[in-house]
Amino acid sequence: MQNLPLIIQSDKTMLLEVHSPSFSDARDDIAPFSELMKSPEHFHTYRISPLSLWNAVAVGFSSEMIITRLNRWSKYPLPDAVEQFIHEFASRFGRLKLLPGPDEQTLVLSCSQEKLYQELKHHRGLQNMLTPAGDCSFLLSLYNRGTVKVTLIKLGHPVEDIIPLRQGKTLALSLRETALSGKPFDLRDYQEEAVSAFLGSGSPSPGLGYGTVVMPCGSGKTVIGIAAMHRLQQQTLIITTNTAAVHQWIDELLDKTSLTADDIGEYTGGKKEIRPVTVCTYQVLTWRPDKESDFPHFSLFQRSDWGLIIYDEVHLLPAPVFKITAEIQSTMRIGMTATLVREDNREDEVFSLIGPKRYDIPWKDLEQKGWIASAVCTEIRTPLPEELEIPYAVAPRGEKFRIASENPRKIPILKELIANNPEDLILIIGQYVRQLQQIARELNAPIITGSLQNAKREELYRQFREGTIQILVVSKVANFAIDLPDASMAVQVSGTFGSRQEEAQRLGRILRPKKRNAKFYNLVTRYTSEEQFASNRQHFLTEQGYTYQLEIWDD
Amino acid sequence: MIDQPNLLQTYLYRLTDPQLLYLYHIHIGDVPTPFHKPKLIEELISYLRQQETLSATAGLLEADELAAVTAAALTPLPSSAQLNQILICRGLHAAAAERMLLHLEERLVLLPLQESDGTVWQVNPLLQEYIGGSLHIDALFAPGETPDGPVKELWFTPSMLPGWLSLLQHRSELFDRKGMPKRQREGELRRLYPGISDPRRFSQLSQTARKAGILKGSFHLDHEAARMLFTLDSHSLTLHFAYRLVREYGITRGQFARLLSVCRHRWYASMHLTGIIMTLSGLSRQQCDALLDCLKSFGFAAEIEGTVSLVPLHRSLQSKKAYPSSEEGHLSKDFGIHIDRNLPLHRWAHAYRFSALKLHDRMTILQVNQRSMLEALDSGMSTDEITDALRLISTDPPALLLQFIQEWAQSYETISLFSGIVLQCNERTERIITRHPTISSMIVRTIAPGVFLFSEKESEQLRIQMIEAGLPFVPAVRTAESMKHPGGTARGTVPMPPEPILLPKEVDSPTPIPRYDDEIIKGLHQSLERFSGSSEMISELRYRIDQKLILTEQQLIRCSKKRHIFEAKGFDYQGKVQLIRQALKSKADILEIQLHQDGQSMLLFPELLIRQGNADILQGRTIPENEEYRISAGKLFLVRKIRKPLLLPKRDSSIR
C-alpha cells in the first residue's frame, strides 16, 4: 500500500506529512476546505471547521467532492464522525440565502427548510431583526445585514449572501513596471494567488470580494492591497495601525502605482484629508470626545464612494470597528495580517464581518523561496542579580514579571550582542519605557516611544533605513506595520506577557529579504515567570516552523 | 495418552454389585452364578474393546449424542449441569438433555465419575480413542454464515494505553483516587480521545491499566510493569489484554488460545459461542455469558444480527499488515511528539512518563513541557533515560528540546525536599555515627556535615543503636510542627480546653456473676433421680449434666422427653452396635469409645461396620491422628455418639 501523507483525526484535524513526496499535491487538494492551524517542521496541521466547509461550498465544493479528496490522501480510513460532520455542515450552506428585497433598504432572508424557518422565527436574538414574510422567508433592514449574519453563523447557520456587493466610485489606477524608486515591480506568484483567492479570476462573483489574507511580515501584504485596488479600479479606504504606517502606505502607493499625491488623502490625528484613496488609522476612527459620545469619524466608513476597504493588521481591529463593519457589508473589504491570532479570541468575528480567510501561506514556504529572510532565533537566559532575587520572590505576580523583564543583567548582554554584530542594523524592542530609556542612555542610541512626535519618529526611521544610525530602541509602537527593510537584527528585551502575535510581529520587523540572515534575540530572565511567558510567546513562531536556540548566560 | 483400561476398570469396580450386574446383563447377557466380580469386569472390558462393538457404538450416535460426547471430550471434566447446559445451547430441552446423558451412561459411552465435588463425566476411553478425530468443536456447534457488512475496528488498541498512562501520570486531576476518570471531566477526555464516543470506554481504559498491573493500589503507577509490558509487540499486547480480561473469569492461557484458534474467522449463534466457551473452559453458562459481554464491551467480540464472533480480535491482530509500518515518530521544535499508530509500541510507549497527551486518534500527539518533565524527574527518570527514550522515537531529536530538558533537570536538582528523620550532631557524634557499622548503614543521605537523613521507620532502631554505641542522651524526635508552634497550638487559632469526656450519671461497682456451683449440679442430679425413664436415658442425661450441657431443671425436663440414646455400655451389645449404625448413617456424628471402665476414651470417625462371622467389626479413623482403627464391638466397654464438630472434614462411611 502506498504511504499516503494525510492522517485525519476524529477531532477533524488533519496532519499532513511535510516530508512526503505527495505533500504539495495533497496540500493543494485539502487547502480549499480546511484551515492551516500550524506548520512546524514535520507535520502541518489543518482543521476542518464549519467555516472552512462553508467557504469551500460557497465556491462550488460538495461534501462528496471533499470526501473524495480526503480519501485520496488519507493513510487510514476516514473516521465516521468526520464524514458525518462534513455531510451535515456542508449541507447547511445554502439553506439560508440573503436576497435583494423590495427596496434598497430592505433585504430578504430566504429559508429552504420549514423547520429551520420556525427555529429562526422563535429565536429571541433574531426576533427584533427578522420580520416573517411568508413562504419561509423574512425581511430585514439593510442596516442589520452584518449583525444578522454574525448571529446566524454563531447559531451554526451560514448565510449565502448573494446580494451583489456595491460598486464604489471609479478610480483609474495602473501598476508601474518600474517603481519610482527605480526597482522593477511585478507581483510575485503568491501575491497573484492571494488576490485571485480574494476576488476570483474575473470580476468578483457573489460570495467573493471580502475576506482575509494571512501572510508573513515582510512578504508584501501592502502589494496585495495595491493589486486588489488595481483589479477593482475603485476608490479605496485603507485603515492601518499608526501614522507612520499611514505614511508608508502612501509612499508605497506613490512608488508602485500611477496614483499621484493628489489622489491620496491622509486621515490621521494631524490631517483630515478625504480623497479617492484615503489612508487612516484605527485610532482616529475610534476616537470620541467622551465615552458616551458617538464616534465622529465613523462617517468616513459610510461614504458611498468606497468600492474597497482595506483593513491592515486586521488582528488588531478594535471592537467599535467590528460594529461599524457590520453595517457596511455591501462594500468589498479585505483584511490583512501576518498573525490571525487575537489575544481576545475574536477571530470568528473577523471571519464573519471582514470575511473568511481566503489565503494563507506558511512562513517557512516563503523563506525557502527566498521571499522573506531566514531568521535565526535565539533565547538568551540570564539570572537576576543577587540583590533582586528576594524582591522578585516576594513581589506580587504582576510585578514579578516586570522585575524579570527589567533585569539589569540584560544590558551587558545587549552590549555584547551589539559588539559581536557590528554589520547589522539593530532594533532593540521592549515593553517598558523606563527600561528602554535606560538602554538608550547606556548605548547612546535614539529611542522611539509613544510619546515621541510622529515627525520625529519618521525622521529616526528614515535615518535607520538609510543606515546613518545602527541602533534604534523602540517600544511597542514599532510592533506593527513599520517597514524597516534593512533591519537585520532585533533584540527583544521585554514583551507583553505571553502575546504570540507580538512575538511574531517583532520578528517580522527583520524579515524583509536581505543578503544576510536575520537574527532575533530574546532576552529572558532565568528562573522567573518570564521563562514561561517567553515559551508561550514563541508558540506561533514555533508552530510556523521556527526554532529557538537556547543560550544560558550566567556571568 | 489416557490409560483407558485402567480408567474403565476403576469405573466398573466402583459400581455397586447391582449396578455392575445390570450393565453386564444388558451388554453381555445372564450373569453366571456364583459371580466373580473381577471376571465380570474383565469380560465387559473385553467386549467394549472389540472393533465391532466400537464401530457399532460410534455409528449409532445421533448428532446430539455426538455433540454430548464431543463436549465431554473437550471440556475439562464437565459436570452434569455443564453438559446439560451445553446441550441446551444446541436447543435441547433440559429434560431431554438429562435423559440423553442417562442413556449414554447406560450404553457405556459416557462414564460418570464421582469426584469430591460431585459427578463429572468422561468419555469411555476406548471409544474416545476410536473416534477421537471426530470429536471436534465443529461437531458440537456448526459455525454460521458470516453476516454481511463491515466489522468495525476495535475501539481498544494497545496504542491507546501510553496516552492514558500519560494522563494518569500528568493529569491526575482528571481521575479519582482509584485512578478512575471523573465524570465531570468527561468533556476534556473526549477532546483528548475524539475517536471515543462512549464515555464508559474511559473507565475501561483505567481498568485495563489496572488489569495489566500498571495501575496499582490507590493510584500508583508501576513504571517497571509498564516497561515490561511494552516490550511486547502490538499483536502480543492485544492478545495479552484480551487474555487479562478473560483470565478473571477463570480461563487459562491454554483455553484462551484454543478458543481463539477454534473461533478464528467464524461466526456463531450467540448461544453456540457461549456453548463453545463452556466446552473449552468448563465455566458455567452465566460466567460464559458475562465473559462474552466483557469481550464485546472491549470490541474484541462483535455481535451482528444474533451472531457473535471473535473476528474483530483476529482482524486487529492482522491489521498491521494493512498499513505500512512507520519507521519513526516525529519530534517537533515545539516539543510535540507525533506518533503514527503503526509505530511499534516499544519505540515510544515510555514517552508517557515525560510527555503529556494532547490527542489520541489515528495519530497520537504528546508534548514535553515543564510540568511533564517535573513529573518524570519526580518518578525517578533521569535525563539520560529521557534522552534515550526520545532518540528511540526519533533518531534526530531537536537540539532545543534536549537543551531544555537539561535546563529543566538542572533547575530540578537545585532543590531537594526530604521526608524522614534528620539528625544533627556535633563532630564527636558525627564521627561515631559515620564509623559505626550499623548506624552508618542506616544513613539514607548525608545532607551536610553533621546533618544526616534517616528513614522514619528506622527511628527506634536508630535510637537503640545510638544508646548502645555510647550515646545515651538521644533526644526525642522534634516535629517541625511542634517547633513551629511550641505551645502545641496552630498559629492563629485560639487555644481551647480539651473536650470533656461525658461519663454516665452513676457508675456502680461491678456486680459479681453468680456461679453455678456444685449445689446446682447436685440439684439436677437429685431431680434426675425422680425421673422414671430407661436406664440408658438416665445415664445419658447424667452424662450431659456432668458435661454442663444441661443447666436448668426445665432443660432437664425437656431433654428427658426425648428418646434419643447417645450412650451404650457394659453388656448392652446391641445398644452399642445400634449407636455405631446410627453414627454411620447420619454421617454427622463421631464416636467416643472406651475399652475399659476406667480406661481412656478415644474419638473415631466411623467408616465401616463389617460383619465377620458373629462379630461386628467397627472400622474408623482416629481423631486427630487420622489413623485407621478396627475393633470388635464386643470389646468396647462404652460407645457414645457425639455430634461431629463442624470443622472436621466430611468422611465417607458405609456398612457392609
Characterize the structure shown.
The complex is a heterodimer of chains A (555) and B (656). With 555 residues, chain A is of the alpha/beta class. Helix content of chain A is 37%, strand content 19%. In chain A, the strands form four sheets. Chain A has a seven-stranded parallel β-sheet, with helices on both faces. In chain A, strands 19-20-18-21-22-17-23 form a seven-stranded parallel β-sheet, sandwiched between helices. Chain A has a five-stranded mixed β-sheet with strand order 7-8-6-5-9. In chain B, 46% of the residues lie in helices and 15% in strands. Chain B has 30 helices and 21 strands. In chain B, strands 15, 16, 17, 18, 19, 20 and 21 form a seven-stranded mixed β-sheet that branches. In chain B, helix 4 (51-59) crosses helix 8 and helix 20 packs across helix 22 (399-413). Chain B is flat. The two termini of chain B are 36 Å apart. Residues 488-495, 497-515 and 645-653 of chain B have low confidence and may be disordered.
